[in-house]
Amino acid sequence: MGLRADALLSALPAPAAAPVSVPAPAPAPALVGSGTGGSVPERLASLPAVEDRRRMLTDLVRGHASAVLRHASADAVLPDRAFAALGFDSLTAVELRNRIGLATGLRLPATVLFDHPTPAGLADRLLAELGGADEQEEQTGKSSSAPAASEARPQEPIAVVGIGCRFPGGVERRRTLELLTEGVDAVGDWPPDRGWDTERLYHPDPDHPGTTYSRQGGFLRDISGFDAEFFGISPREALAMDPQQRLLLETSWEAVEAAGQDPTSLKGRQIGVFVGTNGQDYPQLLAGAPGTSEGMCSPATPPVCSPGGSPMCSDWRAPRSPWTPPAPPRWSRSIWRCRRCAGATASRRSGGVTVMSTPGLFVEFSRQRGLAPDGRCKAFSAQADGTGWGEGAAVLLLERLSDAHRHGHPVLALISAAR
Hints:
This protein is of the alpha+beta class. The protein has helices at 8-11, 40-45, 50-68, 83-86, 90-104, 112-115, 119-129, 135-140, 178-181, 198-201, 235-240, 243-258, 282-287, 297-300, 306-314, 329-336, 360-367, 401-407; strands spanning 158-167, 171-172, 188-189, 216-217, 271-274, 320-321, 343-346, 353-354, 392-400, 413-415. Strand 1 and strand 2 form a beta hairpin.
């Protein structure tokens, strides 16, 4: 489904005229093979084989997940299907976390479904927390496929094997350099599809309140076009999701495809995700429409959620971080040192993702006389007269060079290994 920005408010549900009664939480269906009597840790201890313990916890997760989603049976919740694809949103994810915490006695973080995005993956987390995994498994990690740190060569470069991007001028995929080679000017007028009151916003006087004297910048095209169903995201949560997070999902998928890989083949792999973003003004847009996405905006829009979006929809695991330093040492170290990270999707802070959902930056910098009237930066020039605003998104798929050669992945660039 595509989300059209100019139809955003009309597509949002109107506020309810009267309070809506919320049904009491349904009890979890009977858990297959989980045994009866005793607490979860006691029943777990009574099972001699690790696979039996894992199966019991998987059934427990499936049972509570089916109750949260109002299914009649746990059979509707497949062990290896992502929670997002099953229909979970931010609210139901927290409800499932609370249920499982009560059942097991564990204190689980609110992001546990982002960190372990399938019932089987969450069961593995519970198994490790409850002490039901073999000692060898706890030390090495069940799904780790990366060589141990001692096998990684400290001087080995990091290879860029895939790129996904969106830049002004209609640049997608790997057409980025055409802006330079063909001398394309990507700066243009304000986009017409964001609902901005362009007539009221512009005023040539820098001191005029609530207006801006510059109406040009480097804007992305069609930021509202997003196939939520493709990523297993409900329409309601997609409306509440910051466009920056939507772009990260799309470009992450494209980066894997550009490397000649099937993105679904990375399911369950140890893929670290490092993301940098700029401002978050999309909640201001949602706040102007009462009842838009109440209960969804807070979990779906802050920058800390951005690194969790791709893993939750793709079942990627291993380290992730919402902030990346200007230089690449953090994510490069996670690739060649960390045995838990076979690869990494790294959106460097110098690129990352930036989308202006509102014209607030234009208004703010106009009061400071900090904008170039033509929207173009003129660094190191005597004609420099202010900054120009631009948008973009970029995702790099990174591997150790030896891994890229072994798997036959394209090597687009090399990054020196961090010391």
